[in-house]
Write a structure and sequence with these properties.
The complex is a heterodimer of chains A (117) and B (228). Chain A is built from four helices and no strands. Chain A has 117 residues and is mainly α. The termini of chain A are far apart. The chains are: A mainly alpha (117), B mainly alpha (228). The interface between A and B is large, with 44 and 52 residues.
């Protein structure tokens, strides 16, 4: 259980660093996806119980894994899909208008377009 | 800039390390208590479904609202781009036969997962996603225009709005005294198909929402694919 939590934290860290430091907007979104996966792994690992069954009630069964983190993971997946698709549309919009997905060049071109309309 | 990046990475790694050292997860687990209270209060034997359709229904409502606003945003902003035209079907006869034979099975599997979310593994979100991928699969075989036709003919976009209205009205009916959320309301026999308070109604409405939304997003991206 512990190793899964550490890997989850590590994935989250890698994702956040990638989101902040990568210049390419598509790579930023992919890094956001990696940190999302890290969060999901931490949730699943927190709810894990050695020898526990899946959280569907059966007869002669006493130990189940914790169902609450699994219910939260559903939220995480759906929100991840929604934000990813919406931000991909914005990336498409920016690249269609300014012909780049590099954030530094994008800032410069947005500033130029604002100063010289 | 490089130096700033490496210093920020080091500080972040340090904070993360301290956070990991401080994290202690209690070894006990309250899931057997969950099992007893779910059987007594909700009636569905899938505990995850009982949590997101009963105990944390507001969570699911706002999740569906976020999903709805994402679909609205995608369909509004993607209309600015020129269309790339139809996704043409594959020429291979074997692909056609394999997909036409298996896509209805995928859709039926999605509907089954959606309807039995409260008594078996599955639920509204996974069922809707399976159904949407089945329709998308079908559009590889018969072309996107034919696969799009039922979308307009059955007014699925309006149906999606009605599904949201159904969830909202379920919640409004529930918060009254002796309403759908009260402990005395019908819960059914745990394990039977008709059980779990409003689990079937909520599963079907959230499933329609995810089915139409997921399919619309993927379809819009495929229709505007060459415009960047």
């Amino acid at each position: 259980m512990d190793i899964a939590i550490y890997i989850g934290f590590l994935l989250e860290f890698v994702g956040i660093i990638g989101t902040v430091l990568r210049k390419n907007l598509v790579m930023k979104l992919l890094s956001l996806g990696i940190s999302d996966i890290g969060v999901i792994l931490i949730f699943i690992a927190i709810g894990y119980l050695p020898g526990g069954g899946s959280p569907i009630i059966r007869e002669n069964m006493e130990r189940y894994v914790d169902p609450l983190p699994q219910a939260l993971v559903i939220t995480s997946i759906v929100i991840g899909f929604a934000t990813l698709s919406l931000s991909l549309v914005f990336v498409m919009y920016l690249s269609n208008r300014f012909h780049t997905v590099d954030s530094t060049k994008l800032e410069r071109r947005v500033r130029d377009a604002r100063d010289n309309p | 800039m490089k130096r700033f990046a490496s210093i920020a990475t080091l500080i972040g790694a340090g904070i993360l390390f301290i956070f990991i050292l401080m994290t202690r997860i209690p070894p006990m687990n309250s899931s057997s208590i969950y099992a007893k209270s779910v059987l007594r209060e909700d009636g569905s034997i899938n505990m995850v479904s009982a949590i997101y359709l009963d105990y944390r229904l507001y969570d699911s409502l706002f999740e569906v609202l976020v999903f709805t606003s994402a679909i609205l945003g995608v369909s509004y902003y993607i209309a600015h781009f020129p269309e790339a035209g139809e996704v043409f079907p594959s020429n291979s006869k074997l692909t056609f036969i394999a997909i036409v034979a298996s896509a209805p099975m995928v859709v039926c599997w999605g509907i089954y997962t959606l309807l039995t979310g409260h008594i078996s593994p599955g639920g509204a979100f996974s069922g809707g996603a399976i159904g949407a991928s089945g329709i998308l699969f079908l559009s590889l075989a018969i072309g996107s225009r034919k696969a799009e036709m039922p979308f307009h003919k059955m007014r699925l976009e309006a149906l999606e709005k009605y599904a949201l209205l159904l969830i909202a009205s379920y919640i409004v009916l529930g918060i009254f005294d002796k309403g759908l959320f009260s402990p005395l309301f019908w819960i059914g026999i745990p394990g039977a198909f008709l059980s779990g308070r409003g689990a079937i109604v909520l599963n079907v409405s959230i499933g329609i929402k995810v089915f139409v939304g997921g399919w619309a997003i993927l379809y819009l991206f495929s229709r505007h694919r060459e415009s960047v």
